[in-house]
Amino acid sequence: MKSARLTINGTRRSFTVDPHKILIDLLRDDLDLTGTKQSCDRKGQCGTCVVLVNGTAVRSCLKKVVDLEGASVTTVEGLGTPEKPHPIQEAFVLSGAIQCGFCTPGLVMATKALLDKNPNPDVRTIKRSLAMNFCRCTGYRKIIDAVILSGRFLRGETTPEEYRRKLTTGRGWIGVSYPRPSSMLKACGLAKFTADIRFEDALELALVHSTEDHALIKSIDVEAAKKMPGVVGIMTAEDIKGTNRIRVVAPDQPVLCEDKVRTLGDPIIAIAAETRDEARAAAAAVEVTYERLPAMMTPEEALAPGAVQIHNHSPNLCYTQPLVKGDADKAFSESTVVVEAEFSSPMVHQAPLEPEVSIAYLEGEGEKAQLVVIGRSIAIHLHMAQIKEAVGWDNMRYKEPYVGGQFGIKASVTTEAVTAAAALHFKRPIRYVPSLKESMLTTSKRHPYRARLKLAADAKGYLTALGYDFTINKGAYANAGTGATLDRSLYMLQGSYHIPNIRAFGRLVYTNNATGGSARGAGPPETMFALESAMDMLAEKMKIDPLEFRRMNSLKPGQGKATGTITEEWPFAELCDAIRPHYQRARQEAVDFNARGGPLKRGVGLGAHSFGIGDPGDTAKLIIELDPDNGITIYAAVADPGEGNDSLLTQMAAHRLGLPLEKVRLYTRDTDKTADTGAAWGSRMTWMAGNALINAIEQMEKVMTETSARTYEGLRNAGKPTRYEGSFTNPGKYAFHPETGQGDNFVSECHNIQMAEVEVDTHTGKVRVLRMTSAVDAGTVIHPQNFEGQLEGGMDQGVGYALREEYIHGKTNDYVTYKFPTIMDSFDMEIVIQETPRLKGPLGATGVGEMTMVPTAPAVTNAIKDACGIRIYDLPATPNKISNALRKMEKQLIAT
């Protein structure tokens, strides 16, 4: 042990520490300064742990305490408090730079270090200074805005009070960017995420994961592990009293594997110890003997004759669904122009920064004890039911702390079930903090697609027919639903267009690859990459401008979607008009640039989509209660991993009831009092929770009108309730006709057309996105900053999907190998908002969060084609693919 003296947040402290102790552990574990976050396993990759050491931004996960003798350390908690925030914290809040907030403390501290040295940095300097600070939510646009606004505050050009007044004064509650209810807590590092919660007597959990893709478990030797320091016990599948299966549709995913592993990383043994290091050391000492089975990583391998069946309950071809509208064969034969091509899209990791940490403990004694799970779910009631069944304990409560961004990954139970089972088995609180490598290995991913698409038009350029045959790599387990992603591809197959004749067939295949699950968009990003590429191919063949081609083929009210549902509203053509001046400007600029000559070529590309929101038959519940001070409390399981659902509920309720924002309280992250509002996926919360909230308010207002009582005391005196449960159910039934796929469809859409401006280096194949422009209509905009933040973050993810991101099971194990987007990859963005109030939407609004990345990839690849003549059919569009295609094209030109 060694001694070290440091000044931490202005207080001189002396410590006796292990020579290897890292600063982040001293701050988080010893001093409970949990605003400093940990994400990348002390690799210095993510920047969530940045603090100031002697005024310099330092990644605290890389610094040993003993090397900092005499240093002054400042964490985000030492910068300001919610009651007295630092101007930088104010700027991040007021700029809308805080979504989930997990990365915020590190960004705030890096900004402080920059502005202390350079109070008026330009954008290039900001990017360089924050290059090691990752954010997955925002696309970095509003972070740059926050740094610039911070500088203005510090230079005295304006004040937070003046800026706040300008932002919000005299404008009502709707369409105004009031600071989000949780944003200042996050800016000050005081919002507690799961990893920030501690129990003094908690055991730490570690798992033994499969090292094989597909194998029988022949033996497990735990003798050495039992004798390791700190080990309290070992849990196997036999110790789990429930089904030991996480069931969504099929109960196919073991909490702990009994006799067979189906993918690399499958959990086999859980070890509890006094410390995380001791648990992980013991897990490394367990020896598992396997009998290998054929590993089938692709659908082609899993469907080959004689292929081993991965699951007993289902063949490897686990789900199929046709879709037939009109007579596609006849339409193709009569069409003037037809294009056809094969497309593929890769497996992608959602890449949130918050680790999949879970905590579980028992409250009470014996059989009456309540099992409490603390996790990062976006569907606390659903996940609680799944865990109850898996671990065999009915008296349960699920608590959701503040959670980081998720992009679909938190739609699945990952660490919560095994943590809950361990709490029951060991009868002590359990904390499970997986490593980043474990997180990459064991969580669900975006499904890889392979498809053949055929698209036709008549002599006037109107679409006549679409053929789409596609295969999805399901991976090892059903996860978020056996056919949900395939279904969504078919529901939205027409995109934004009127296509009278469609013939499609989708198949979902179990393999031994990583499990496919929910991911932003879930189906349409893959499908629209193919359709929007084909739209450009067809427009080129017909010599019609790509924007005009999209506009003239827009679906119209009264026409049918892919499943036959007739539309009532469809303001897509107007979006084409809205983006036209931007498109004309970009086209001319690209022509002028390319006229200079040289290896750099610029291009412009479009992508569009109309994203379905509100599944047929979906339902949501929500409770409001009038409080003694005549404010209200909303009880609803509405998760908010960054989208802005807290603002949505608060501002909608304040608007309808004429209340100040501070009198609208939210209770949303605990199953004990909340109504089951459903999952925060599918961009459904604005539509579903918003409509349920309006219904609850209408019930209360009806009683108030009948009794002429508008206060808590008045309702009580009239003998009327102060608590009202609102509900909302979409019309229709979620079911395809088994032979034609016809049936009810989504009840609302968010419409979008995006334009990419890119620069291609024809020597290297490297692509630089210069600007993305997004024209969008999602009805009434409740909170403009939140709305823009979803669009900007989605475009950033869409560009990553187009150009860089690909998960390779067992090889992608950190942010570097995944090519996580940094602020240096960020680009200019412009947003064009059109508000067409939805007929049945809450206050005319609908959702936006997932649509934002759907058209981005085809817009980028269409721009690449426009720049250098190369069409990319297989994502991502890497420099190697582009340069190889350019060389091939050059050889073909020489040969001719």
Could you explain how this protein is built, in words?
The mean pLDDT is about 95. The radius of gyration is 27 Å and the shape is globular. A hairpin with a 5-residue loop joins strand 20 (about 450-455) and strand 21. With about 900 residues, it is α+β, with helices and mostly antiparallel strands.
What attributes does this structure have?
single chain, 896 residues, alpha+beta, five-stranded mixed sheet, 25 helices, globular
Oligomer: single chain
Hey, roughly how much beta strand do the residues contain? 15-25%
Distance between the termini: 75 Å
Low-confidence stretches: none
Q: What is the percent of helical residues?
A: 25-40%
How many separate helices?
A: 25
Q: Indicate the mean pLDDT.
A: 97
Radius of gyration: 27 Å
Shape: globular
Largest sheet properties: 7 strands, mixed
Total count of strands: 30
Structural class call reads: alpha+beta
Spatial arrangement of strands, main beta sheet: 8-12-6-19-16-17-18
Topology:
Elements: E1 2-8, E2 11-17, H1 23-30, E3 50-53, E4 56-59, E5 72-74, H2 87-94, H3 104-117, H4 123-129, H5 141-154, H6 160-168, H7 183-187, E6 203-209, E7 215-221, H8 223-226, E8 231-235, E9 245-246, E10 253-254, E11 260-261, E12 267-273, H9 276-285, E13 287-292, H10 299-302, E14 317-325, H11 328-334, E15 337-345, E16 358-363, E17 370-374, H12 380-391, E18 396-399, H13 416-426, E19 430-432, H14 436-442, E20 449-457, E21 463-475, H15 484-491, E22 501-510, H16 524-542, H17 546-552, H18 573-594, E23 600-613, E24 619-626, E25 632-635, H19 645-657, E26 664-667, H20 685-707, H21 712-717, E27 723-729, E28 748-761, E29 767-777, H22 784-803, H23 815-818, E30 828-833, H24 856-868, H25 879-895
Parallel strand pairs: 1-5, 6-19, 17-18, 21-22, 25-26, 29-30
Antiparallel strand pairs: 1-2, 3-4, 3-5, 6-12, 7-11, 7-13, 8-12, 9-10, 14-22, 15-20, 16-17, 16-19, 20-21, 23-28, 24-25, 24-27, 28-29
Helix pairs in contact: 2-5, 2-6, 12-13, 16-24, 17-18, 19-20, 22-24
